[in-house]
Specification:
single chain, 217 residues, alpha+beta, Pnp Oxidase, Chain A, 7-stranded antiparallel beta sheet, 3-stranded antiparallel beta sheet, 12 strands
Length: 217
């Protein structure tokens, strides 16, 4: 009791009679401000995102992978087509998919042969890759017009690109229509890698811009 009176006396002596009520008020205000906001009272935060047209946002996809899909047409001619739209769709069993416009000649070849090769081109194949992606197999034999080393596939009726980083032999499993494109899904029945380390070719920007990336195995 004596200690309490002494503390009260000291408070009144130093700060006046209002010292204790003022201290209590300040303490209550501090407790109130320290409480977190409720779920219905979020603090507004500036967004780091802005909405733009799809055509602008999709430009950020680069660098984009680049492949050459090969399928034999009804005349037995292997037709290579450059594309960036490809993906792994399953690990067990291993499966990959390619996507191309509905009117592409390669689509006819894939449907005819029921199989296709996916080649990961190497950096030194950049000129061939551009040629394969800017000409149609309806009109020419691409491999003859742009001489490229090829060899027979082991498990399917197709060919491998000898100087590619890797080749995957795919047996056609299914086909889907997605807007103005088709998706062909293939089950990988054989895989090949180059015996010489090579850099894989990527699409680095619009307008036929290509560049090498070191392949890891």
């Amino acid at each position: 009791m004596e200690n309490m009176n002494r503390r009260r006396f000291m408070g009144q002596s130093l700060f006046g009679a209002a010292a204790l009520p003022l201290a209590a008020a300040l303490s209550a205000e501090a407790d109130k401000s320290s409480k977190p906001s409720g779920p219905n009272e979020p603090k507004p935060q500036p967004s780091a995102q802005k909405q733009v047209d799809y055509s602008e946002a999709i430009k950020t996809k680069y660098p984009e992978q680049c492949i050459v899909a090969i399928a034999k047409d009804k005349n037995g001619k292997p037709n290579p087509m450059t594309m960036g739209w490809t993906m792994i769709t399953s690990g067990s069993p291993p499966m990959m998919a390619i996507s191309m416009g509905t009117t592409r000649y390669t689509a006819e070849a894939v449907r005819h042969s029921k199989c296709f090769t996916i080649a990961f081109p190497s950096a030194e194949q950049a000129k061939a890759v551009i040629f394969f992606g800017t000409t149609s197999g309806r009109d020419i034999d691409k491999f003859k017009e742009f001489p490229t080393a090829i060899e027979p596939a082991k498990q399917i009726d197709s060919v491998l690109m000898t100087d590619a980083v890797a080749n995957f032999e795919c047996q056609l499993e299914s086909e889907f229509v997605t807007g103005d494109h088709l998706i062909f899904v293939g089950r990988i029945v054989a895989s090949h890698v180059n015996t010489t380390p090579k850099k894989r070719l990527y699409i680095t920007g619009s307008g036929k811009k290509l560049g090498p990336v070191e392949a890891k195995t």
